[in-house]
Amino acid sequence: MSIIGIGTPEQAADKITQLLSKDPNLVQQAGANLAHVFYEAPLDKKHYDDCRRRLKQLYPKAERVGYIWAEINKSDNIIVVGSTYTHDLFETYELLKGNTLKKLAKAVLSDKENAALADYQSRINSAIAGAVIIPISPEKNLREAEQILGRRIIDTYGALNPNL
To answer: Superkingdom of this entry's organism (predicted)?
Structure first.
């Protein structure tokens, strides 16, 4: 599958909205709120708070509001499409996830190797431009919505990680 440049997160939000608008049945089945698709950049704590506030304003009575996201890199490609109810989209990627792995790396690898890992992790995270956020109705199954909409987005634009 080839990856087609989708543009900046702001441009990608428009392109994804236009793509999904072509199939109202798909949008209805997934429960997507295309009138309120937006983008966030950078993906940090402040923007997570802004994102949650925007979603809560759309669905004020819902205990939790889920969304589908398409993460975009600075080369204007989709990295991955996913869904969540939480802040995981706004966390940085970690090459060594978990305390045991971090302690093991510190014990086994040299200072130079650990510094190289930290540099790689920083470079990977700095390549992220932002994400397109697609609010999903609280009455819909978020995982099913991710499969429905994510497949359409990936089939059209590709993704570095096309697995849903």
So the answer is: Bacteria
